[in-house]
C-alpha cells in the first residue's frame, strides 16, 4: 500500500509540473535591422511559428536602422503578414524614433498600428528588465 501512495503522489507531481510548464507565457522582443525580403519573410515565419506553438506568446518586433522599411507603407514586402500578426495575434511592431529622425521618416509613413519608441536599444533594455527574452532577428 505504501508503494501505491508513492506512485500516486509522484504521478500527481508530474502532472502538476507539466501543467505549470505548459502554461508558461513566452515574452520575446525581437531586434530587427535588416531590409531584405528574405529577412522580412524570415521574421514573419519565426513569429507566426512561435505564436502557433505556444498559443499565448507576447511578441514585440522593434524595427530600426534599415529594418524600419519592413513597417513602412510602400516599402514593406510583407504588409499583409505584418497586419495579420498584429490583428490576429496582437504582435507589437515598434519603430525607433532616432532612426526615423535620421532617415527623415514621418509616423504617417508607417503602418497605422506601429508604436514609436525613443531608442530601440533602450526598448530592448526595458523589456529585458521586465523579464522578456531578446532575439536578434533576420539573416
- If helices are DSSP runs of H or I spanning 4 or more residues, what is the number of helices? 5
Question: In CATH, what is the homologous superfamily?
Answer: DsrEFH-like
Mean pLDDT: 89
Structural class: alpha/beta
Helix content: 40-55%
Order of helical and strand elements = HEHEHEHEHE
Q: State the end-to-end CA separation.
A: 59 Å
Q: Report the β-strand fraction as a percent range.
A: 15-25%
Q: Roughly how many Å is the radius of gyration?
A: 20 Å
CATH topology: Hypothetical Protein Ychn, Chain: A
CATH class: Alpha Beta
- Overall CATH architecture: 3-Layer(aba) Sandwich
Give a structural overview.
With 139 residues, this protein is of the alpha/beta class. The chain has one domain (25-137): 3-Layer(aba) Sandwich (Hypothetical Protein Ychn, Chain: A), CATH 3.40.1260.10. Helices cover 48% and strands 18% of the residues. It has helices at 2-22, 37-54, 79-89, 97-103, 120-129; strands at residues 27-32, 58-63, 92-96, 115-117, 133-137. A five-stranded parallel beta sheet has the order 4-3-2-1-5, sandwiched between helices. Helix 4 links the parallel strand 3 and strand 4 (115-117). Helix 2 (37-54) runs parallel beside helix 3. 22% of the residues are buried.
